[in-house]
Specification:
Order of helices and strands: HHHHHH
Structural class: mainly alpha
Helix content: 55-70%
Distance between the termini: 46 Å
CATH class: Mainly Alpha
CATH architecture: Orthogonal Bundle
Radius of gyration: 17 Å
CATH topology: Helix Hairpins
Strand content: under 5%
Number of helices: 6
Number of domains: 1
C-alpha cells in the first residue's frame, strides 16, 4: 500500500470523527453514525456486493466508484466500533511478518483471534420466520 492510501484513509477517518457531532439533517455521516452499527454494517455489506457485481460485469469505473463507497462505509464502521486505522495497519503488519503481505492469514494460525459468534440481525430473523 502506498503511503498515499494510508494518508487518505487517515484523512477520511479524521473527517468521520469530526462529523460525529454534526447535524444529522445536514451530514450523511452523522445520520449514519446515529443509526448505529447494525445499519452501518448493512451499508458496508451492500457496497461490498455492489463492488462484486461490478467486478463480475467487468465495469472498471463502477468498481472504482463502489470501492470508494466501500472504504467510506468501512471507516464509518471503524468509528462506530471505536477502532482506528492504526489498529488495522498494525494487524496488517503482523500478518505480513507471518505470511507475507500478499497472503491471507490461515484460519488456524497459532495467534489467530478466537472465532466470533455469528448473530442474525433482528430484521433478518423476522423475515426468516415468515
Amino acid at each position: 500500500m502506498c503511503s498515499c492510501m494510508a494518508d487518505s484513509v487517515g484523512r477520511l477517518y479524521d473527517q468521520v470523527i469530526a462529523a460525529k457531532n454534526a447535524d444529522p439533517s445536514v451530514s450523511r455521516t452523522a445520520r449514519l453514525l446515529r443509526a448505529g452499527r447494525s445499519k452501518i454494517a448493512k451499508k458496508l455489506a451492500e457496497e461490498a456486493v455492489e463492488v462484486v457485481i461490478d467486478a463480475m460485469n467487468g465495469d472498471r469505473e463502477a468498481v472504482v466508484r463502489e470501492s470508494a463507497d466501500l472504504l467510506y462505509n468501512l471507516v464509518v464502521l471503524w468509528v462506530a466500533a471505536d477502532l482506528r486505522p492504526e489498529d488495522v495497519w498494525n494487524e496488517m503488519k503482523r500478518r505480513e511478518r507471518m505470511m507475507g503481505i500478499a497472503e491471507k492469514l490461515p484460519k488456524n494460525a497459532v495467534d489467530a483471534a478466537p472465532r466470533r459468534k455469528v448473530v442474525l440481525l433482528d430484521s433478518r430473523r423476522s423475515r426468516k420466520r415468515r
